[in-house]
Amino acid sequence: MEEQKEKNIINQDEKVISIKGLYKSFEELEVLKGIDLDVFKGENVAVLGKSGSGKSVLIKIIVALLKPDKGEVMVLGKQVNKLLGKELDDLRLRIGFAFQSNALYDSMSVRQNLEFPLTMNKKSLGKKEIQIAVEEALDAVGLKDKINEMPAELSGGQRKRIGIARALIMKPEIMLYDEPTAGLDPVTCREINELIDEVQKKYKTSSIIITHDLTCAKATGNRVAILVDGKFLKVGKFNEVFDNDDKQIKDFYNYNFIH
Amino acid sequence: MLGKFAVKKYLFSKGIDEYLTDVYNAYRFALQFFKEVFKPPFHFREVINQCYEIGLKSLPLITLTGFIVGVVFTKQSRPSLEDFGATSWLPSLMGIAIVKALGPLVTALICAGKVGSGMGAELGSMKVTEQIEAMEVSAINPFKYLAVTRIVAASIAIPLLSFYCSFIALLGSFVNVHNLEATSFVTFFHNGFATIKFLDVFTSVFKSIVFAFTIGIIACYKGFNATRGTRGVGNAANETVVLAMFMIFIEELVIVQVSNWIRYF
Ligand SMILES: Nc1ncnc2c1ncn2[C@@H]1O[C@H](COP(=O)(O)OP(=O)(O)OP(=O)(O)O)[C@@H](O)[C@H]1O
Ligand SMILES: [Mg+2]
Questions:
Q1: Rounded Cα–Cα distance for residues A242 and A135 (Å)
Q2: In B, what residues contact A, Cβ < 8 A?
Q3: ipTM reported for the complex, 2 dp
Q4: Mean pLDDT computed over A185-204
Q5: Is residue B257 part of a domain?
Q6: Is residue B3 part of a domain?
Q7: 20 to 30 A Cα–Cα from A35, which one of A194, B117, B207, B259?
């Protein structure tokens, strides 16, 4: 696994995401207090943090679902919070977002869930091309046989995969995974981790993987970042970050492996 | 998405202020609707789907209620007319009552309950399960795809239901009149429509469209602003019905006043 990961071509000269001095609060609640983060092309960055530490808020700011109070967020060379209308849509189509809650359209079948972003954004595509794209995305997550089922009929892990497939269908350059393994058993967790790795190779994506699970962070991240109190306590290779005497990092590490 | 306007200090009391801000926010939602409705892309297919949903789901209830309202109103009005020996006026009285007031109002109230709560709950659950955000990140404008289509569909389907309801209510009234006075179908409808003027029909249709639009706006506004959790979804449905019914009565009052002014002008 380690060996394989070294083979990823990470281009240190090209930043796909660059965040500087990011602040965000909800009324009195200060969630993010000065975030800096660079993600390079071809890289997987795992963001670790406790529940409620603002991980979801961070990636929602990256796709402009939330507006930052202060700071600069550059994604694929564009300043996200300055974009509007068509320009924002064009950028969003280059980003795949796998929601924490999956957010599958529950009135649509799996097929329709995947077709929807395609038919809405690429009017020129024919029936055949759409069918091929849907099958390809389902194949990538290994759930080709579920094409005609409704989201409610799927298991939690399968829904996660369909959520990822739906994000992949637009062939994004960046993937944002919000807790892809939360609430899943260890075996399924490992399968999802492998899936994230495969996606990175097959689709040549750069990604942010949000998690509070160290195993997932270790397996998927080229680098990890630990979010504590609205700031990144440490960013770096997994072993470097956790080979550290800082109390908060130790606590985080111990907590994860005891529970 | 639209930010919510909120007051810092209460003007009257908490309850009243919350109600007024609610109405104000719904009004801003309506402005947003007019900004978006004429801009492409147009989701015609979704509008038709929604029309179908709204129309078909409410049809049985409207049929039943409309018929009963017609029968009951005729029964209740007969004794007062009998005192003057004027039962022959029943058809025209019922014509006026049903076309001008009962048809649109009964339909709107039923749809506020059935269509409004359904829409509020559906959109509310899409909101709390992040499906609306999922559309946004797929570069699909959820306001256009979900709200505009539903509001347009409601504004088409509910006035049609209202026509239908008036017809069924008149039919109910006819059944009652026919049984007791042996009035023929042709005479009944001839007399029924004799006193109805163009302004009456126009006002009735206009009113119906206003009610329908109100239901659509409020349901979408409540759904889009549902708070997290299943409680949020239930509240969205419930508050839609309460606020929509309240607004419908106020609009009824205003429109009747204004149309009377026009009549005597
Ligand atoms: N739209 C919002 N309005 C108000 N507060 C919010 C909103 N979104 C998030 N918050 C608050 O911001 C804080 C961080 O939330 P966030 O969802 O980012 O946590 P998280 O790190 O993703 O946690 P988890 O691991 O449980 O998903 C929480 O206290 C939450 O209540
Ligand atoms: Mg989260």
A1: 40
A2: 122, 125-126, 129-131, 133-134, 136-140, 145
A3: 0.90
A4: 89
A5: yes
A6: no
A7: A194
